[in-house]
C-alpha cells in the first residue's frame, strides 16, 4: 500500500469512528473489514457509527452521478440485521456505558478524580446514533454528586429516593449552560438536581434561573 492510500484509509477510519461521511471510496471487502473491527473493538455503538458513515458516503458518491454503490448498501443492511439492535437499543448502550463509568469514578478517591480533571479541557467528544449525543466526563458527574451530599443543589431538599443498583441518592447532574449551546463539561458548570428541578431546568417557564 502506498502512503497516499494509507492516509486515505486513516482518514476514512476517523470519519467512520465519528459516524461522519467520508469521500474516498472503499471496496466492499475493505468496508466489511472496517465493520468487523469496529464491532469487535467498539461494540454496537462503534459499528452503527461506521454504518452511518458508509451510508452517507454512498449517498455522496451517487449524488455525483458516478453510479450506484448497491454492494455497500447491502453490506450496511446485512450488518444492521446481524447486530439485531435498533437505534433505541444502541442509545441505551451508550447511556448504560456512561453510567458504568460514573459508578467506577465514584469508587475512586476525590484526589484521583481531580488529578484526571486537571488535564481535562471540558471539550466533549460526540457519538452519532439516532441523534448526536455528548460523551460527558464521568469524573465531572461523580464530583458533582459527591459535592451535593445527596441534597438537590437548587431546592435544597434530599434526593427523592436511593438508587436500587447501589443505594446512593438519586440526583441528576445538569449543565447550567447546556453543552449544545457551547457550555463546558466542567464541574463549575454543573448542578446536581432532583428529577423535579431537573425537568424544570429544561422545560420550566423559569428555566433561566438554573443558569445563574
UniProtKB/TrEMBL annotation:
Q: Which Pfam families match?
A: HNH (PF01844)
Q: Which residues form the HNH nuclease domain?
A: 141-199
Please give one Gene Ontology molecular function term for this protein: zinc ion binding
CDD domains, per database record: HNHc
Coiled-coil intervals, chain numbering: none
Query: Which InterPro entries does the entry link to?
Result: HNH, HNH_nuc
Name of the molecule in the record: HNH nuclease domain-containing protein
Print the organism lineage.
Bacteria, Pseudomonadati, Pseudomonadota, Alphaproteobacteria, Rhodobacterales
